[in-house]
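[job 0412] stage=fold_complex status=start
inputs:
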Amino acid sequence: MKSNLKRALFAILASTALVTAASAETVRWARVSDALTLDPHSQNQGITHTFAHHIYETLVDRDIDGALTPRLATEWMIKEGDPNTWVFKLREGVTFHDGSAFTAEDVVFSLDRARSEKSNMRQLHVDVAEVVAVDDYTVEVTMKGPSPLYPNNLTNTFIMDKTWSETNDVVEVQDYAAGADNYAVRNANGTGPYILRSREVDVRSELTVNENHWAETKPAVTEIIYLPISDALTRVAALLSGNVDIVQDVPVQDIERLAATPGIKVETGPENRVIYLGYKFGDEPLQSSDVTDRNPFNDPRVREAMELAIDRDAIKAVVMRGQAIPTGVATPPFVDGWTEELDAYPAVDLDRARALLAEAGFPDGFTVTLDTPNNRYVNDEAISQAVVGMLGRIGIRVTLASRPIAQHSPIILNNQTDFYLLGWGVPTFDSAYIFNDLAHTKSGSLGAYNVGLYTNPELDVKIQSLGTEVDLEKRAATIAEIWEVVKADRVLLPLHNQVLAYAMKDRITLPVHPENQPRMTSVTFAD
Amino acid sequence: MLALIIRRLAQSVLVMLFVALIAFVMFRYVGDPIASMVGVETRIAEQEIMRDRLGLNDPVFMQFLRFIGNAVQGQFGISYRLQQPVSELIMSRLPATIELAFASATIALIGGVALGVFTALRQGSFATGAIMAASLVGVSLPTFLIGIALIYIFAVELGWLPSFGRGQVVELGWWRTGLLTESGLRSIILPAITLSLFQLTLIMRLVRAEMLEVMRTEYIRFARARGLSDKAINFGHALRNTLVPVITITGLQLGSVIAFAIVTETVFQWPGVGSLFITSVQVVDVPVMAAYLMFIAFVFVVINLIVDILYFAVDPRLRVDGGAAGK
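[job 0412] stage=fold_complex status=done
writing structure:
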C-alpha cells in the first residue's frame, strides 16, 4: 500500500515535471525604449546590452550580487611569471545559433573588434596590447601593464562568430559617416540562450529559446516578446490591462498603486548607481553667484553646512516615495571599497549649518544656480527642487536650471556649471572607476567627470597607483585611504543610491538586477 | 493652368529649402547628439572622435549644404540612434501613420457631418445642447488626456480593446497594414478616435454653421414652397451646398492630422513617423529630425498644391477670373 502511494506520488511529480518542461511560457516584456542596434560592439548603452545578453554571451558575467561568474570562459587567471597577461580558459562544446562551433579564434576576433577604432566598447579595452589564441580553448590577453581588474571590463563585451562576421562583411563596426548600414545591426548570431526570430525596430522583437544552449538548467521562459513603450502612463496601462507581463521601467509614483493592484506585484532592489551633487572648487568666483570676490564652495565650512542642511531622509520619503537608499558616500554598496562607516551620513542640523556659514563669512548666505537633468535619473528634477528648498533654509538661495540630458551633458563635460546634479554607475564594481573619473585632477583621460575641477596631487598619486597594483590587500588599503580623503574633503555631496522597480503579473518573478540588466533566464513562474 | 502649377512648384521648392534651413538652425539648440548616443561613462576623447566622424565639428553652413546635397539625391543619411538609413526608417513607419490618419479622418468626416446636420436641424433641443457642450470639451481637452482617459476606460477597466501598439500586421509588399487582421482593427479604434475628436468637432461646428446659413437662403424657402420633402431639402439641397467648405477643410486638415499625430502616436505607442520623431528629438537624432521635418513640409506643400488645382477645376468662377486676370 505504502509503496503504491509512493509510486503514485512519484508518477504525479514526474508528470508535472514533464508538463513544466514541455509547456511553452511566453513573456511579454515592456520597457522604455528599444535596443539601439544588434551589433554588440557598436553602442555602450545599458538597454542595448540588456537585450544583447539574451542573444550573445560574454566571457564573464555578473551574478545578482555583482560578483563575477563564468560564462563563455570557465576560468581566468594572471599568467604565471607574466603579471601583464590574463589567461582565459574557454567553455567547450558551445555552438553559435547557426551551428558553428565556438573556439578561441572567435574570442580573439571579437576582442579585437571590440577594441577597434569604430567600436564604442573600445574604452574598456584601451590597456590591451595583444590578444592571442594559445589553443582552441585558451586565449591570452596581454595588457600594456599590470591590469589586475581587467576581467571586470568584459561583462558587456560580447563574442561574435568570426566566420559569420567575415561571410557577412561585418568585420568592422558600423561607420556612421559611411552612409550605409551594416548587416550586424539587424542580424545576430550569438551563443546565447535565446535566438532572435523577428525584429521590427522600436515596435517588437521576438526571441525563442535556444534548445542547444550549453547551460544545464533550461530557462522557464521559452519565448520573449520585447515591446518598447516610451510613454510611462501607456507602459503602466499596458500592464494593468494585461497586454504585457513585465514592465521594467516603472515610474516611482506608480509603484504603490501597482503593488496594491490585485494580480500585479512589484519587485524592487538597489541599482548600482549613486546620485550626487557637485560644486566648483578653486579660488575663482562663481559665475552664477552674488558673491563676486571669492568662491564660497571652496571653503570646507560651506560644504559642511550644505551637507548638514540637506535632509536625505526627507528626499527619500517625499520625493522618492521611499524608493531610494540615502548615503553619505559617492559609491553604491556593490562596489569594492564601500563600507558601512563611509555610508553613514550626518543628521540634519540647521543651527550648526547656519553657524558654519557665518563663520565662513556668509551670514546671509549667497546665491547660486543648480544645473540638473530632467530626464536621466529617477525623479532627478524633483530631487533638485527639494535641494533648492533645503538649502534655502540656511540662506543659500538656489536658482534651478533644468534641462534634458542632451543639453545637461555638454555643460557638465565643459565644466560650465557651479553646482550640479549627476548620477554615476560603476560598471566595473571597483572604486578605482569612481576615483579615475570623479576625483582625479582633470587631465588627459583622467578626471573626465571631475566637473568641479577638484585637485589634490597627493590623492592623484594614490589613484594612479591603483591601476597597476597587483597586491590586492595593499590595493584595498589604498582605496580606503582615498575614500577617507574624498569624504573628509566633501569632494562630492552624495544623496542616495537609486532603487529600481520592476512590475509584473504576480505569477511571474523577475529579480531586480543591480545594473538594470535583467535576464529573462532568471524568470520563475509561481505555478 | 500649367503656368500656375510651375509657379507653385517653384514656390514649393523655396518653402522646402527654408524649412530645411530653419530646422538646421534649430538643431543647434536641441542639444548634443553625442551625449545621448553614448553612456555618460564614455571618455571625452572618444566622444570627440565620434563628433568628428559624424561631421558635427564642421560649421553649420557646411553641414547644411551637405544635407541639401544628399537630400536632393534622396539620401538622408543614417540615424544616429538606430544606425539604419533614415529614408528606410521613415518609409517603414509611414503606413502606420497614414492608416491612422485616414481612419481618423473618416471618423471625423462621417461623425462631424452627421452631428452637424443633426444639431442644425434640431436647434434648441436637449440633445443638441448636450452635443454642443460635449464638443466644447472635445476641443478644449488636450489630446493626450483624451487618449489616456480612453485607455483607462476601454483597455484597463473594461478590457475591450488593446491599450497600445498596432496589433498583428500583414505585409503587402513594403506596405505593412494593420487593417486586415482582427487585432489590428481593434488596435486602431482608440487612437483613431483620439486623433479624430478635434477634427470631428471642427467639422461638426462648420457643418452646423453652414447648414444654418443655407437654411435661411431663399432657394431653400423656395424648395419648401415647391412642396419638396424635408429629406430632399435637408440632404439634397442644404447639405450639398455646405459640403464645399467642409471638403476643403478636411483636405487641409489631413495634412495636420499626419503632422500632428505625434501626441496620439506617443500615447498609444503607435509605430508611426510621429513617434519616431519624438524618440529622435529626445536623443537629438538630427538626420531623422531633419528628414521628418522635410517630409512634413513636403506633405503640406503637396496638399496645398492639390487643393489649389482642385479649386481651379471645381469652381468655374475662379477659372473665369483667373483667365481674365491673365489677359
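[job 0412] summary: Chain B is about 75% helix and 0% strand.
[job 0412] exit 0
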